[in-house]
Amino acid sequence: MQKIELFKVYMSKEAPDVVGDVLRSGWIGQAHKVEEFEEMLRNWFNVPYCNTVNAATSGLHLALHYAKDCDKNHRDEVLTTPLTCTATNWPILANGLKIRWVDIEKDTCNVSMDDLERKLSPKTLAIMVVHWGGMACDLDRLKQIQQKCQQVYGHTPMIIEDCAHAWGASYNGLPIGTHGNTCVFSFQAIKHLTTGDGGLIISPNSVMHADIKLLRWYGLDRTSSKDFRCEQNVVNWGYKMHMNDIAAAIGICNIKDSAEIVRKHRENGQYYDVALQDIPGLTLLKKNPKVDSSYWVYTLRVERRDAFQKKMADAGIATSLVHKRNDLHTCVRDYRCPLPGLEVVAEDMICLPCGWWVTPEMREYIVSTIRLGW
């Protein structure tokens, strides 16, 4: 019996040869391929301010570093979701900032906008949201909440969209990444678009873009004509978080196929949306008509989850929660608070395979297995 995987790595057939050319070129750090890939990304999103990095985690770290550096009133609180990869939230701690957990919506697994609005305070430096599974958050309401913070507390918190699941998703007909916020994408191995590992920061303005470009490499300008940057003065010290040409070469090859990859994810997800309706013991997530999800994973809620997972495993179908709620880790115990929506969802959520490798026959087999009960 063939196992139906929850995740697989997509790699263009061109990639090995293109990467081989990079390895033989003598330029394997950040050089011409990174520049070429960034130009492709700018054209893809039709935005001017794209900086690649070595991981989405680095991108989130740099975004928070920038927000903290720009704030002159010592705000130190980031409102964020606990239902995500720890990669979303550990950069908050790494920047010496405090987490304030926001509950989730039980019917979307995204941040609860009502709870988010309630938790605004004079200390709010930034708001972090995750587009769970590729289903975008309510960005219109999010903008209203940001404006309310300005009206009530006199400052506008940075909105950081963690778009790790959301390559190819859209909101109100516009691609995620183009709604005027700071947006960070992941190019990790199992994402719609992979560079092996890597990430992208889309900045909302030229000032942030220029600063991030320096911060990702020690605070130095790699394009300077001065003696190997030895004559530069570092005004704001930075990190070693840039992308290299090996990763960029993989991205250049894979981005050409990424729209088709997303199309297959979406087709499988939309099939489940119809085929899994009205099955006793299942609750499907709510779909926002403003959103075209990228269906990175297909999440639903299921009664007797352990029995469900065993039934699927016995049938050769991989399932997983994908991410554990972050707020239970010892390192963030000081920030724990009641999160009633999360308490419910954490007990019954599960994800099904819906990626580009899932054939029509496979998805029909998955549905028929579920319909037999557990």
List the main descriptive attributes of the protein structure presented here:
2 domains, Aspartate Aminotransferase, domain 2, 3-stranded antiparallel sheet, 12 helices, 7-stranded mixed sheet, 37% helix, Aspartate Aminotransferase, domain 1, alpha/beta, globular, 13 strands, 374 residues
CATH fold call of the largest domain: Aspartate Aminotransferase, domain 2
SSE sequence, one letter per element = HHEHEHEHEHEEEEEHHHEEEHHEH
Biggest sheet: strands, sense, closure? 7 strands, mixed
From the spread of the alpha carbons, the general shape counts as: globular
Radius of gyration: 21 Å
Average per-residue pLDDT, rounded, comes to 97
State the helix count.
12
CATH superfamily of the largest domain: Type I PLP-dependent aspartate aminotransferase-like (Major domain)
SS-based class: alpha/beta
Uncertain stretches of 5 or more adjacent residues: none
Q: Note the beta-strand portion.
A: 5-15%
